[in-house]
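Worked example

This section walks through a single chain of length 137. The input is the sequence exactly as stored; nothing has been trimmed or padded.
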Amino acid sequence: MKLFFCDIHVKLYDEKITKNMLEDIMSFLENCGAPKGSKIIIEKTHQEIPFGKNEGIAIYLDGQNPAEKEEEYNVDFVQSEISKRTNISQSTERYWKGNSTTGLYFYGQSFEKMNSEVSHFMKAHPLYKSARIAQIA
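Given that input, the structure is written out below as tokens.
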């Protein structure tokens, strides 16, 4: 499995990096949904500062099952239902599409709570019952 990540570079024009500056940056990123396992790396000193509050859940629709061909399942419907059931409103779609698998990604306060809600929904729908669910943050 490939590891995917995102780098955000913040250029500070002040020579001295204060604790308040770092706290403001971390707070802003956490409010934007930064997941657990995120970190600030201060380039000059190579210091790593962990932050992030959200946990992540990935739902992989396998597309291998004859009943789960791409044209038969509706990714928008799945995303909408999961958002409703987990009370997560995503301003951006988070997904990955491979040759035979589609991965949907959601971030919230508790993986366990999201997993419980998602599992019930997925098992109740024949097209989605073979979906694989994993914690990603």
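What to look for: The chain has a mean pLDDT of 83.
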